[in-house]
Amino acid sequence: MPIKTVLFDFMGTCLDWHSHIVSTLPDEIPEHLRSSFALEWRQAYFDANSTRLSQGLPPEDIDITHARTWDEVVSREAFTSAQILLSSPQIKENCIAAWHHQPAWPDVSSALSSLRNKGYEIVVHANGTTRLQLDLCQSSGLHFDALFSSQMLGVYKPAIESYTRVLELLKREPKECVMVAAHAYDLRGAKAAGTNTVYVYRWTDDIREDQQVVKEENEVWLEDMRGLVDVIEKLG
């Protein structure tokens, strides 16, 4: 069955969230510590979503989740030396807002253009809010045919209902779609729904995953999005 629609996770997969968050944190904090804080904050967000999903709770506004997880990460012993700065309400507010303005990874724009030129639909399917996705499209300069957020769908990925609902809305069979993501949990959910999967490695994400296992789980594992259109054509 030919592939007609390419579904993309957004943050991490298409967008370099890490560099922007690190640049927003106070310069007085050493860069290695800012990087570590950003990575831990991102993982805390994933953990919070997983907890809500396991408890049967609906998606929470991502800004609220980021505010709560910020406080938790700031309190960790690893960031004791920066706690005075990180306890500033203004710094916290600036960093939460920074998630709405992220640059694209350098390989993404051309990959999307190549897919569009081949006639594929390109769609965002990501956790978060619709406002967040609109802001990120504007700040990154990336363009998609549709945006699906966990806020809109009423459930977080990787719940299978998230994927099946998108397929219903797009009127696509699972094998007419491929999910592209830098998150193994996301592709496990997509695979459970029956879609093809392509993993794109980003050093900023999946910091707890064994990449050898991830390679074995998916049809395709890529170091970046160069050549993405070629592998999707082969999958179809």
Automatic annotation (TrEMBL):
Pfam families: Hydrolase (PF00702). Keywords: Hydrolase. It comes from the Eukaryota. InterPro entries: 2-HAD, HAD-like_sf, HAD-SF_hydro_IA, HAD_sf, PGP-like_dom2, S-2-haloacid_dehalogenase. Gene3D superfamilies: HAD superfamily/HAD-like, Putative phosphatase, domain 2. The keyword Hydrolase applies. PANTHER family: HALOACID DEHALOGENASE, TYPE II (AFU_ORTHOLOGUE AFUA_2G07750)-RELATED, HYDROLASE, HALOACID DELAHOGENASE-RELATED. Belongs to the HAD-like hydrolase superfamily. S-2-haloalkanoic acid dehalogenase family. NCBIfam families: HAD-SF-IA-v2, HAD_type_II. This is Haloacid dehalogenase. It comes from Aureobasidium pullulans.
